[in-house]
Amino acid sequence: MPPPATQLPPMRHARRLISEPDQFGDAVSGMSLTVEFQRRQLRPSQVEQFQTPEWGLDFGEAHVKTSVRGVLPGGWASLCFVRGPGGSTWNGQSAEPGTLCGVPPGEELDGHTAPGFGWLTVALPPATWARCRSLAGLDDRSFQRLSACRMPAHILARIERQVLATHRVLCGASSKPGDAAFAVRAASGLALDLATTTCELAGRMPPPHDSLRNRIRLGRRAEAWMRDHLADAIRVPDVCLALGVSRRELEYAFRATFDQSPRDFLHALRLNAIRRALLRANDAQTPVLHIALDYGITHQGRFAAEYRALFGEPPSATVRR
Predict the structure, then answer these.
(1) 3 confidence band (pLDDT: 50, 70, 90)
(2) pLDDT of amino acid 1
(3) Average pLDDT score over residue span 130-142
(4) Which end of the chain has fewer CB atoms < 10 Å from its terminal CB, N or C?
(5) How many CA atoms lie within 13 A of 171 on its CB side?
């Protein structure tokens, strides 16, 4: 149960717009995310966060196709209620609107979001996570991998009503401090209910096929190798030869893990790395070509056009900004 009113922890509330990939870094409470834009963002994304030491609730909308990777701190767990209209894929599992995704402690999150992806994430400390597993009848060895469970219609309708009501209460508490205690209690109840429901649904699911897990492992290995060799003007055949896999195997792995071809993923990875370098440049006169060459770009004219198509501005404008 939530603690008595006299012991309720203070609540932090923050709302912000997101226009850069790195601004997604803390969009899920307690998790450090690495986000790459895969398509141009047509309007800013946004996130609204409510946090106490006992939980974190994040309401967000992403209006851009992204690849996402992150991991929770030791012992903490996270779950995501996918609200749509855009869907997502996490660790190879499709997560359309109406899906509850559970990320157990220590599990790495790896996937992508489509434009219009809406979410509510809940971060939970170890004691609360253990309580939710117990309520769902799961032992300590259960729920060791990410799960993505589509909710039955009657559960989805109940959860959606509870989420909307809790969000209204939380927003009201920001302008009426006297309502904070009620808001914290409502949010604590929502977090516990969502986590327990996630555990119950996950407990009924069969384990994922070995072939899917192997493809995700290969996708992650390939991504790590790409990041380590961005300065070498690598191409997809180089990745295949380095990892000892066929082009077809790599294609299947990237479709399962990132919903993209290896070529498109590598291209977006390189452009996102260049953008970060341009934003860090201390001198507005820094030659863009020098930075682009550092990340394996060999065709300057095509690079500028592709950069503008992804980020909505030429590289020179990013440096000046």
Answers:
(1) very low
(2) 42
(3) 82
(4) N
(5) 10
Global pTM value: 0.82
Beta bridge partners of residue 50, listed in sequence order: 13, 57
User: For residues 122 and 50, what is the distance between their CA atoms, to the nearest angstrom?
Assistant: 10
Is it true that 5-203 and 210-320 share their CATH fold?
Answer: no
**Token duo for residue 48:** 């609204």
CATH architecture of 210-320: Orthogonal Bundle (1.10)
* Among 205, 98, 196, 198, residue whose Cα is nearest residue 156: 98
pLDDT, tens digit, for every residue of 278-302?
988 766 566 888 888 888 887 777 8
Convert the pLDDT of each residue in 242-253 to its tens digit: 999 999 999 999
For residue 103, which of 129, 140, 85, 136 has the smallest C-alpha distance?
Answer: 129
Which residues have a Cβ under 8 Å from the Cβ of 304 and sit 6 or more positions away? Answer: 288, 314, 315
> Hey, what amino acid is at 188?
S
Residue 12 amino acid letter:
R
Rounded-to-integer distance, Cα 6 and Cα 184, Å: 12
What distance in Å separates the CA atoms of residue 82 and residue 91, rounded to the nearest whole number? 15
Q: Which residue has the tokens 């690598």?
A: 234
CATH 2.60.40.2970 for domain 5-203, yes or no, is no
Taking Cα atoms as reference points, which of 106, 144, 125 lies closest to residue 188? 125
Q: Are 75 and 105 in contact (CB under 8 A)?
A: yes
Tokens of 51: 């946090």
Report whether 90 contacts 111 (CB < 8 A).
yes
Structure token pair of residue 158? 């109940």
φ/ψ of residue 199, rounded to 5 = -65, -40
Strand order in the sheet with 66-71: 32-37, 66-71, 108-113, 88-90, 93-95
Q: How confident is the model at residue 254 (pLDDT cuts 50, 70, 90)?
A: very high
Spell out the domain ranges in the chain: 5-203, 210-320
Q: Which of 305, 7, 36, 45 is nearest to 185 (CA)?
A: 7
